């Protein structure tokens, strides 16, 4: 059994007894200096591979996201309709790589929390907000594309507010973590030997762990389900436009025909809502279909990258994580996979722009 050198006058309040006891069991035998960082017993063997993998992802993600953001801000975007949404994804990816992934790596590797109380309360929200932002951004990209196919003029007037709505929705989705997060300052609970060291975790009230993991899975699946439903509607709209485009091109090719003169007379007598029909005739259906295909690939890559983390969270709902020896290793791997789109989204965007 692991034993740890305890300070003199070791007294722990009853409310924190279990948390502090389990925390001290995580140190190696003979640990005296609790103020410096100590690697977790379960992750110490895989420290170097984890650091290398996370550093590679952070570097590649930052280069990709900043490159995408630079192209969107400086270059003349061929498709200005989606510029705001992909700029939002790029900013979100920069936040993931610059803030979320480094703090996540520290949390996975080190047993004692040394980042302070404020970061402890913000960390669960920081970790999940960008995942929700990415999911909802892909949903609104499909919404924007669907509106553009129905009414191009109206779609171009409703871009910026949706970016703010995405961040607001994502922020509201993680507010509950502020209530369930627990921080114990060991310097004040024990003595100066633990000064600067704390325990950052989740309060053990009721079935809080099951609730938090379950709500995370539901909130991550919600935008994905809505996105795939909207994707089907966009596909149906493209099929309708392809058929209407064939009919219109047939009329234009016969200027002397009676059908064409009747068609123009009909257009002149219609009211403003029917002007969409005229606009539809100028849409490049091939480009819209190609864009739709790339949106599908981006959405699927985002969904597939989340599957391991969602499955692991679901597994922990029905299993005691303390009985799982490699819990932190699995969490580190699944989190790394979940943040892979920080690299793939920019590459897919570049391929899309070159294709159209």
Automatic annotation (TrEMBL):
One of its GO terms (cellular component) is plasma membrane. It comes from the Eukaryota. Residues 64-349 form the G-protein coupled receptors family 1 profile domain. GO terms for molecular function: neuropeptide receptor activity. Keywords: G-protein coupled receptor, Membrane, Neuropeptide, Receptor, Transducer, Transmembrane, Transmembrane helix. It is found in: Membrane. It is a multi-pass membrane protein. The chain crosses the membrane at residues 51-73, 85-109, 129-149, 161-180, 211-228, 294-316, 328-350. InterPro entries: GPCR_Rhodpsn (IPR000276), GPCR_Rhodpsn_7TM (IPR017452). Belongs to the G-protein coupled receptor 1 family. This is Neuropeptide GPCR A11.
